[in-house]
Specification:
mainly alpha
């Protein structure tokens, strides 16, 4: 299974992986753990993800990649990443998986891309 396929699977059934389908904070924590595991075992993980997000926005800030995703999903801002209003939470999760799909598709299409089939 490629990383793109894995992210799509996670996006379809996030509650199966983190216990709740509506927690942006828990999903980003899960993905951070996924990234660390992949890198420790020779995979790409989310290498380049933060830079890709910053490049897509055209500006940088001090936020880690979850904050970058929220800047894209909720440009009007937010108060607490761990306690988003339900409507914002749902939208942020949707945008997260759209962005992950775009990122993974671009990485797959680039020469020398590594897939973990």
């Amino acid at each position: 299974m490629s990383e793109r396929e894995y992210f799509a699977c996670l996006g379809r059934r996030p509650g199966m992986f983190v216990g709740t389908a509506s927690s942006f904070h828990q999903l980003t924590a899960f993905l951070t753990g996924y990234d660390q595991h992949a890198m420790r075992h020779g995979g790409q993980g989310l290498t380049g993800w933060h830079e890709w997000l910053v490049g897509g926005r055209g500006r940088s800030c001090n936020h880690a990649w979850p904050g970058q995703v929220l800047h894209i999903a909720l440009p009007e801002g937010w108060n607490n990443i761990a306690d988003l209003p339900p409507k914002d939470e749902k939208h942020a999760i949707k945008v997260l998986f759209q962005l992950l799909d775009e990122f993974a598709a671009e990485r797959e299409a680039s020469p020398g891309a590594q897939n973990s089939d």
